[in-house]
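User: Quick sanity check before I run a bigger batch. Here is a single chain. Can you write out its predicted 3D structure?
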Amino acid sequence: MSSIKLLVVFVALIAELYAGGKMNVQTTTGSTQFNLADIIGITFEMDYEGFQTPVMLNVPSGSFNMGASSGESGESPIHSVSLTNNFIMSRSEITNQQYCDMLNYALVNHHVLVSGNTVLNTSGNQQVLKTLGSGYGVLYSDNGFYVENGSADHPVLFVSWYGAAFYCNILSLRNAKTQLYNQSNWICMNYGSDGFRMPTEAEWEYVARYNDSRLYPWGNNLPTTQLANYGNNIGHASNVGTFPGGNSPLGFYDLGGNAFEWCNDWKGVYSSGSQVNPEGALYSESNGNKICRGGSWNYEGSFYMKTTYRGSVGSDGLKDYLGFRIARISN
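Assistant: Done. Predicted structure follows.
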């Protein structure tokens, strides 16, 4: 809502309250009357029109064989996984522009504060969400957050796992859905509610390998500079979706290359038994590292882009090669 619209609504509200001390609000279930005492103490969430839900693609429920018989990153043993929920996942990694829009929404609603060249959440267990400044994609001035020239459609980088979780919570808030991350301890409620979160490691691999256990998101052929941004062949992250030849069977961009992507899970050792809707290891088994997947613009080896490769970084990591995408159960 623009500032002019907001002012008109506010003036109308005050005028009606002043005239009679009461006002009628039309809702989906009828008309509800408020008096002045009802209004005092209500917290209104300020709108920010630029902050919108990214393009999301449908993923049907199903089963697949997860992992590999060997690998560089704890990819074995192969084990059967069933995902019993349909879900949606963002077509691309979240971009600098999308993250910047979220920060501006959060700023006007007092959910974030800036400290030096970092941005932090204001409530719960406070964490550094993202690094700000020239070379970091998003900057800050007295007027709010803005995107560095030429990088609006690059994946957001230098964002911690907490920063990704916070984005999901604020997007859920913006869309009147359940905030799945408890910011007092950052534990996520993966299933049973309709909010946004990062994909689980199993969901990410299922999307990347969909239906045929392929080695790479685009198939079984080795990476080339026409399929992905990797190995410093460009020298920086690129606009999301620049390499359509590297799209996955379901139409997802950049599951191989451009930026590693945070997953929801702590990293642990795979079980050999069948699993249903796995949620990853316990914190005590993880050495404090969260899973990241997909390879990056500055990683040389092709194996980083394999659909089974398991990277991991401390949850407070702010890396030039690491971003995220989001998911939501859609049943």
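Residues 96-147 form one domain.

User: Great, the batch can go ahead then.
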